[in-house]
Amino acid sequence: MNINREIITRLSKWRNAANRKPLILQGARQVGKTYALKQFGKMHFESVAYFNFDEQIELKQFFAQTKDVSRILQNLSLAHGKAIIPEKTLIIFDEIQECNDALNSLKYFNENAPEYAVTCAGSLLGVALNRGASFPVGKVDFMTVYPVSFSEFLGVSGPNLLDYLHTKNDFEPIPELFFNQLVDKFKMYFISGGMPEAIVELVEKQDVEETQQILTNILKAYQLDFSKHTENNMIPKLIHIWNSIPSQLARENKKFVYQLVKHGARAREYEDALLWLSQAGLIYKIFCSKKPALPLSAYDDLSAFKVYLSDVGLLRRLSALDPIAIREGNRLFVEFKGALTENYILQSLISQYDEIPRYWTSGNQAEVDFLIQDKNDIIPIEVKADENINGKSLTVYENHYQPKMRIRFSMKNLKQDGNLINIPLFMSDFTKKIITLMQNQSSQTQNNNITDASSKVTSSIPDNGEHLDN
Q1: Contact 69, 108 (CB under 8 A)
Q2: What is the CA radius of gyration of the chain?
Q3: CA–CA distance, 197 with 36 (Å, rounded to integer)
């Protein structure tokens, strides 16, 4: 089963870019980086030359012995078994963080052999760079592969429903027949999350138990990375933080508290471990915004933050929430203080904006789950796990800052009410499109108002005949 990944479209644009540089594809383990590169190679090149620095340790010698790209390519061609041809062969360096010399060689590929299409995948590249790995600054392009989104999941589990959502260009409610089917698919997605292997097992084989086991294995593999890629004194800290995340998110306000990591824990002891998990792409650290102004990053409260996992399916498995809950109405979304639903919305927003949202709070009075910056607009977002949409946080925020637009995600149907848009949870991947529709609608209204006002002014001015009569 082939999952149609959005990253393939982005890779195609990279290939055709006039100033193309060697590309580094980042993302957590098991999200499909290598698969995406190989699929891209099959679709757009005559051949793929794949090299894995973790499996083929001897490859490192090619880069340690010389910086001459011609000699490196000769050696790689011999190892590949056929010539590597510019524009016809896609070169893939997998697990490139395992070879600093290969990472540094990207500079010379960019300067001396730009006609070669060079791509790299590195699950722990951020961690490697933090430990002092040499890096060709300004000589590479970056892209991030995120877990499979719900819309990508829908492409293999309900393609007709995805086609319908793509054609939706208004704020009219979704017909009940489609709405109910989309909710059912959405519940399925919370079982597998965005891990490609788990999705294939669930959609193609419909084996929930094996899907559970796949997610368990991925979680175990992540913990093995802790011991393989960190110092011994860091390992217990990483494990304590990792295992505490469900407890952190079960709190009412979900603010990260070091005391839940370990009794007596202090920030200075665990800050490096949090940074490691973030750089490995395993968690997202969401800061509280002191003031929702431009740019958002300038107003971070560094002492107040929340921590979410990179994938909602992994969070569900780590939290030991049984998939059987999907049969019990919206219980799966509501349980666990709605943390799964917030994690899902966060993933969706990050993949669309390539930026980490913030959140906002007004003491004990109100809390807005997320703030995003769309162009020069700051948009407050509230996440509701079911159809109960009662809450005053967005109203409090509006009274403070008068935003042009507010968004609420819930299990209710699509609806516009003034500057408030209710978006069904399963449409979160279309947030950017919906915001654009709202902005265009607002611009059209303003233009109409200007035209009407201009018409009134014109009609009130006497014509020449009236002047003469007077």
Answers
A1: yes
A2: 26
A3: 13
Q: Which residues contact 421 (CB under 8 A, 6 or more apart)?
A: 171, 405, 406, 407, 408, 414, 415, 434, 438
For 422, phi then psi, to 5°, come to: -95, 120
Pairing of strands 141-144, 23-26: parallel
Q: How far is CA 45 from CA 72, 112, 174, 354, 459, in A?
A: 21, 21, 41, 27, 65
Cis peptide bond prior to 295, omega within 30° of 0: yes
Predicted TM-score (pTM) of the model is 0.92
User: For the packed helices 235-249 and 267-279, what is the interaxial angle rounded to 10 degrees?
Assistant: 90
Q: What span, in angstroms and rounded, lies between the C-alpha atoms of 373 and 403?
A: 12
- 469, exposed or middle or buried, with CB in 10 Å at 0-12, 13-18, 19+? exposed
Phi and psi, residue 61, nearest 5°: -65, -35
User: In degrees, to the nearest 5, what angle opens at C-alpha 292 toward C-alphas 289 and 296?
Assistant: 70
Cα–Cα–Cα angle for 115, 118, 122, nearest 5°? 165
In which residue are the tokens 């061609």 written?
Answer: 77
**Which residue, among 424, 447, 384, 375, has the nearest Cα to 404 in the 3D structure?**
375
Are 370 and 345 a contacting pair, CB within 8 Å? yes
- Residue pair 355/310 in contact by the 8 Å Cβ criterion: no
Start-end of CATH 3.40.50.300 domains in the chain: 8-144
- Token pair for residue 394? 């967005």
CB 144 within 8 A of CB 297: no
Q: 232-241: buried (b, 16+ CB within 10 Å) or exposed (e) per residue?
A: eebbebbebb
Q: Which residues of the chain have pLDDT under 70?
A: 130-134, 326-335, 445-470
* pLDDT given for residue 132 in this prediction: 62
Interatomic CA distance for residues 188 and 328, integer angstroms: 13
Q: Report pLDDT digits (tens) over 409-456.
A: 999 999 999 999 999 999 999 999 999 999 998 777 666 655 565 565
CA gap 412, 432 in Å, rounded: 19
d(CA 335, CA 325) in angstroms, rounded, equals 9
Helices (H) and strands (E) in the chain, counts: 19, 13
Domain 8-144 has CATH 3.40.50.300: yes
In contact, 296 and 373? CB cutoff 8 Å: yes
Residue 331, CA atoms < 13 Å, CB-side half-sphere: 9
Specify the pLDDT at position 466.
Answer: 46
* DSSP 8-state secondary structure symbol assigned to residue 389: -
